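Task 17 of the worksheet. Students: predict the tertiary structure of the chain below and write it out as structure tokens. Keep your answer in the requested format; marks are given for formatting as well as content.
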Amino acid sequence: MPNLFTAAADRKRAETAPLAERMRPRTLSEFVGQEHLLGSGRLLRQMAESKTLHSLVLWGPPGSGKTTLARLLADAAGAQWASFSAVLSGVKEIRQAVEEADSSFAMHGRTTVLFVDEIHRFNKAQQDALLPHVERGTVTLLGATTENPSFEVIAPLLSRSRVLVLYPLGEAEMGVILDRALADPHRGLGQLGLAIAAEARAFLIAIAQGDARRALGALEVAAEIAAQNACEKIDLAAAEEAAQKKTLVYDRAGEQHYNVISAFIKSLRDSDPDAAMYWLMRMLEAGEDPLFIARRMVILAAEDIGTADPQALVVANAVKDAVHFIGLPEGRIPLAMGVSYLATAPKSNASYAAMNAALADVKAHGALPVPLVMRNAPTPLMKELGYGSGYQYAHEHEESALRQQHRPDTLEGRRYYEPTESGFERTIRERLERIRRRRES
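Model answer:
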């Protein structure tokens, strides 16, 4: 017999739960977004209609519906639900859940869905403990993660699951969610009788950045502000007050970190100072280590600018030293200067390409002998053996250019460094061509 006090407490919690929790979809028909997975004929739609479920890892940003979707799929399949937090649960809890899953199947014929939130936080021991039960089908794994699962989820577990990508909700989808919450008189804010100004609605959609939970949280506070001020409409001022400050989506330890630094480096490489400046400030505003940014600028100066502008490496290194010396917030100024210089500098990866080409020969041919003419002869025996015999001193020749063997026989004549026509490399190229013509003559 149900406990009346427990039921009353559950109803009270439901009434006082945050708006995002109250508006959580109860059926797939209420679910908004992810049409590439839930549209007609798509994978998850077919699973739900056939009432079958396979192990899945749902990878997507916060507020894209991972947890809700997992629960709805389990309900559609008629499966028992067991939920875990990767942060709070250990191997003991996994074993207990598996035992309960075995009992449920033996007694009622019901399969169990084991939902693991933030599965990328499961350590290897936890994942290893889970693996054999997923293999045997004792449980169906539904994992949710905001991080690329290939970085943290062990390969055997990934190979037994389908990884599905969820995308941030679009503006139209976010609008549907906000309008529905504002109008719903039972779970939403409909009992307040509030409208919302177009600019306030657009603002809430923009600051949410595709996160439904964030949008609904801001809407709930904005509605409270409007109601307290006896307003009939949520205006832009209420929405801005509710949102306070836009929170940047950036995780210094996760994939977003690598995406943003990649965009920054590629903008510098592509000579787009405006884009590079945006990504620089995006990283700094989100709390990135400024020395990490400076170190990447030093690498870019050598790899992507190189001898097209040898001064670029000097500038990048000076920026790194300045940031280390003065710190933030003033350290942003030399960083911005460095970004402007590197983005507009001529570009060449000729030195980088030469390095890789030479390395390929080193790996392919091993430790080839140094030509005798290139060897030093500090002892009489070495001189008798021909070490250094015939060596010509470069400074006694015009432009220090002379013809003698500098490399092993196998690699003699091989070219690695081919300067471009970009920046200072044009001067280098002209001089190198003169030297090569002189050697050949």
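Marker's comment: The CA atoms of residues 372 and 387 lie 5 Å apart. The first strand starts at residue 56 and ends at 59.
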